[in-house]
């Protein structure tokens, strides 16, 4: 890039597909780039990891009266 000339950008392309943990609050990044920009560290989910269970308790107020 020469001084005074705008940078030239190529067409964006996908580098990799990953399964990452959703981060709705953006409190942390799930990736980082190594110095030099040649490697990535990505926090991914494993296909064999157990999914957390959700337990729904109905009529829980009656249990408090006992």
General description of the model:
With 66 residues, the chain is low in regular secondary structure. It has a domain at 17-47. The protein has one helix and two strands, in the order E-E-H. It has a two-stranded antiparallel sheet with strand order 1-2. Strand 1 (31-33) and strand 2 (40-42) form a beta hairpin. The protein is elongated, with a radius of gyration of 23 Å.
Distance between the first and last residues' Cα: 75 Å
Major sheet: arrangement of strands: 1-2
Q: What oligomeric arrangement do these chains adopt?
A: single chain
Looking at the structure, what is the overall shape? Answer: elongated
SS elements, strand count: 2
So how many helices? 1
Radius of gyration computed on alpha carbons? 23 Å
Summarize the helix and strand pattern as letters.
EEH
How many strands, what sense, and barrel or not for the largest sheet? 2 strands, antiparallel
Classify the secondary structure makeup into a structural class: little secondary structure
Mean pLDDT: 81
Task: Provide the low-confidence segments as ranges.
Answer: none
Percentage of residues assigned to helices: under 10%
Range of strand content = 5-15%
């Amino acid at each position: 890039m020469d001084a005074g000339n705008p940078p030239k950008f190529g067409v964006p392309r996908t580098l990799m597909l990953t399964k990452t943990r959703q981060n709705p609050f953006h409190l942390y990044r799930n990736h980082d780039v190594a110095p030099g920009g040649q490697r990535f560290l990505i926090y991914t989910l494993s296909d064999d990891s157990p999914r957390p269970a959700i337990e729904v308790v109905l009529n829980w107020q009656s249990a408090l009266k006992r």
